[in-house]
Amino acid sequence: MGRLYPPRAGAGNDAAGNYARHMTLFTYAVAGDADGNPTTATCSHLSTIADVTPSSTRGCEDCLREGSHWVHLRECLQCGKVACCDDSPRKHATAHYHASSHPIVRSIEPHEEWAWCYSDSLFLLPA
């Protein structure tokens, strides 16, 4: 099955549309709450971000194994697991958070640099 929309070549992808093996590690800061509103809240998990290598360059590793499909991809910033977003049928990134307690993921879609802290429900952007 695979991705609902084919990956594009460009930032974060190679010419064949495979996701980059290693992306730039940003320093993140809180940009908003779960509704996207400005907030003075702090994320208590920023110190858990590690310099990780994506577990897959082809897509959501669980969807690939199951033969299902995904919409967008997220990378766990504690272990590098690549999993699908909550708009995808199987929501593997959120399932990984619940199974592992790894709180922060980032989008690995081209031209997207945001991250999300599940534990604090905060939207993060590069500082």
Describe the fold and architecture.
The chain is of the alpha+beta class and 127 residues long. It has a single domain, classed as Herpes Virus-1 (2-Layer Sandwich), CATH 3.30.40. The chain has a six-stranded antiparallel β-sheet. A two-stranded parallel sheet has the order 1-3. A hairpin with a 7-residue loop joins strand 6 and strand 7. The longest helix is centred in the last third of the chain and has 9 residues. The N terminus is likely disordered.
Q: What spatial form do the alpha-carbon principal axes imply?
A: globular
Query: Uncertain runs with pLDDT below 50, 5 residues or more?
Result: 1-12
**Widest sheet, order of strands:** 2-8-7-6-4-5
Proportion in β-strands: 15-25%
